[in-house]
Amino acid sequence: MSDTLTAPAAADIDRNPYKADFPLLAGNPNLAFLDSGATAQRPACVLDAQRRFYETMNANPLRGLYSLSVEATEAIAAVRGQIARLLGAVDERGRACARDIVFTRNASESLNLVAKSFAPLVLGPGDEVAITIMEHHSNLIPWQQAAAAAGAKLVYLYPAPDGTLPADEISAKIGPRTKIAAVGHVSNVMGVENPVEQIGRAVHAHGGYLVVDGAQSVPHMAVDVAALGADFYAFSAHKALGPMGIGVLWGRHELLERMPPMLTGGEMIDSVTETGAVWAPVPEKFEAGTQDAAGIYATGAALTYLVDQVGYEAVASRERALVRYAMDELAGLGFVDLIGPAEADRHHGVISFNVRGVHPHDVASILDMDGVCIRAGHHCAQPLLAWLKVENLACCRASLAFYNDRADIDALVAGLKTVWSTFHA
Fold first, then answer.
1. What tens digit of pLDDT does each residue of 224-269 get?
2. Annotation: CATH topology of 51-307
């Protein structure tokens, strides 16, 4: 594994000690992977952990009294505690509230769980759910459906042109009828960090609840759910160096206790009769069936690598340097239109743009010929792109991670010059 770098050393984007830790990147030295906002690459320690689970403790957690099953159970419990500490979910004595960590398949399922199991407990006709126009579809469609089912109204908060949510927009849209505010911590299109704490204070002042989509924040920054004022917080492991198929939902314990399960079946019950069932305690109540135990175990390895080996300070320092360099280079091309704030430090690893007169799908396809991987399309944020009046409801997105370097950005810029010359020969 790479040596741990200080934040100033990590900002040296000419040097890259990280790629050696990632087998796919190390095995493809000419690949510029710039789609980490969709899914991150996995370090070898994560791949090794997943294999180690199957080779050394392959048994169904919670279901057996023999040693392999006990070891698997303890391994999953340890990861729950690790994630609780990562999110600042601790009690008054500073102990991790592992029981409040629910494992799902992804952030989408986590948010659906809140919308389907919690929202009906608090939403009624005439109530309101407040979300931003910037939300990923995973934090938008569930609330459309929850509001419609309850006869409630979905209220959108709109940012200023630079992506900032104005204070007067928050105060005007969140009021006595707002029972839930659901907001992405960081926009997956503009990269801006939303004023989650301010939104939380506003909705709590009226007795409502705050749901936070952390899919784009956990990979980039330290999170403290108490400081944010969150009542629920969701993220996906695969965007934070972990395996696909693992999601996390943290919720305040008293709220999780009130919620019925969304899925029923094995392992989520205390007892079953011919006429009914008694649910297991939180979190098992929400984890019907066999969990991806190896994936959960490997998620622990991913977060250990991200937080302890690399460190959030180094991540932030390096990503700031990468984004600044990339935005300066893109601005100098003359045929690229950037989307989002002009200040590089507000992009949190995400740079969205379009090449004038060229469809984003064509841009991505031509870049791929040179080994440059970007995202092109609506990024599961169609209402935002419609509001921004982005042509074709599509744009290009380069999303950076700490394992990128100057050469990756140079490859992107060179590829974009090829794109432009291809259409303007």
1. 999 999 999 999 999 999 999 999 999 999 999 999 999 999 989 9
2. Aspartate Aminotransferase; domain 2 (3.40.640)
Residue in the structure block whose two tokens are 């659901």:
182
E-assigned strands of 261-382? Answer: 269-272, 277-279, 336-339, 350-355, 372-373, 375-377
Is the distance from CB of 209 to CB of 203 less than 8 angstroms? Answer: yes
How many whole angstroms separate alpha carbon 121 and alpha carbon 180?
A: 11
Domain ranges of the chain: 7-39+312-423, 51-307
* Alpha carbon of residue 219 to chain centroid: 7
Q: Which helix (H) or strand (E) holds 399?
A: strand 395-399
Distance between CA atoms of 247 and 231, rounded to whole angstroms? 17
Is residue 380 among the annotated active site residues? yes
Cis ω before 283 (30° cut-off from 0)? yes
Q: Side chain identity at 184, as an amino acid letter?
A: G
Expressed in angstroms, the distance from the first to the final Cα of the chain is: 46
d(CA 35, CA 105): 21
H/E run at residue 258? helix 253-258
Out of 45, 97, 380, 396, the active site residue is 380
Residues 173, 194 contacting (CB under 8 angstroms):
no
The Cβ-side half-sphere exposure at 338, using a 13 Å CA radius, reads 23
φ/ψ (deg, to 5) at 165 = -85, 110
Q: Token pair of 85, please?
A: 């500490």
Residue 153 — pLDDT band, cuts 50, 70, 90? very high
Q: What are the CA-CA distances from residue 300 to residues 82, 104, 237 (Å)?
A: 7, 15, 9
Based on C-alpha coordinates, what's the Rg of the chain?
Answer: 22
Environment class of residue 200 by beta-carbon count within 10 Å: exposed (0-12), middle (13-18) or buried (19+)? buried
Topology adopted by domain 7-39+312-423:
Aspartate Aminotransferase, domain 1 (3.90.1150)
Q: Do 353 and 338 touch, CB atoms closer than 8 A?
A: yes
Q: Mean of the per-residue pLDDT values for the chain?
A: 96
pLDDT for 201-216, tens place per residue?
999 999 999 999 999 9
Bridge partners of 183, per DSSP, are 212
Asked whether the beta carbons of 153 and 128 are under 8 A apart, the reply is yes
CB burial of residue 39 (10 Å; 0-12, 13-18, 19+): middle
